[in-house]
């Protein structure tokens, strides 16, 4: 499972670099919430779950899950426990997936900064577009 998540993160940021090359003066930055959101997307897709199914398991509505997956909202501790339960993982296993994805991103020269330091426009738009490309490529 960890190997699959690494591949997805690699493809995501490879595509992000492609998009970045099409724009001038774009810095490669992201934040942990965006990375975590993509980990959730990857795990959800690996298990063949739609957002509707996962959102019901988490006790949230689909738009809230969508915001979490896009990195626009952060998961609190209770939500982290619910997510790990929904994916039948322990909380340390879920955090291990996040840490692994974060390291993979950093190895590709993407700076991971606190959310308030990211440019919501460029960084999240690129991340969202890359996520969409990843979903389409499956």
Structure overview:
- A two-stranded parallel ribbon has the order 1-2.
- The chain has helices at 2-21, 32-46, 51-58, 62-69, 77-86, 91-107, 122-137, and strands spanning 29-30, 111-112.
- It has a single domain (2-137), classed as lambda repressor-like DNA-binding domains (434 Repressor (Amino-terminal Domain), Orthogonal Bundle), CATH 1.10.260.
- With 138 residues, the protein is mainly α.
- 68% of the residues lie in helices and 3% in strands.
- The radius of gyration is 14 Å and the shape is globular.
- The chain contains 7 helices and 2 strands; from the N terminus they run αβαααααβα.
- Helix 1 (2-21) crosses helix 7 (122-137).
- Mean pLDDT is 78; it is low at 18-26.
Keywords:
globular, two-stranded parallel sheet, 7 helices, 434 Repressor (Amino-terminal Domain), single chain, 138 residues
Task: Give the topology, please.
Blueprint: H1 2-21, E1 29-30, H2 32-46, H3 51-58, H4 62-69, H5 77-86, H6 91-107, E2 111-112, H7 122-137
């Amino acid at each position: 499972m960890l190997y699959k998540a690494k591949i997805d993160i690699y493809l995501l940021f490879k595509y992000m670099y492609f998009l970045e090359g099409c724009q001038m003066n774009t810095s490669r930055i992201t934040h942990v919430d965006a990375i975590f959101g993509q980990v959730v997307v990857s795990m959800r897709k690996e298990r063949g779950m739609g957002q509707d199914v996962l959102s019901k398991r988490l006790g949230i509505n689909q738009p809230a899950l969508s915001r979490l997956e896009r990195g626009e909202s952060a998961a609190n501790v209770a939500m982290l426990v619910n997510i790990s339960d929904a994916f039948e993982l322990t909380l340390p296993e879920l955090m291990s997936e996040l840490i692994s994805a974060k390291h993979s991103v950093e190895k590709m020269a993407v700076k991971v900064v606190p959310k308030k330091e990211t440019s919501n426009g460029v960084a999240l738009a690129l991340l969202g577009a890359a996520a969409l490309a990843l979903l389409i490529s499956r």
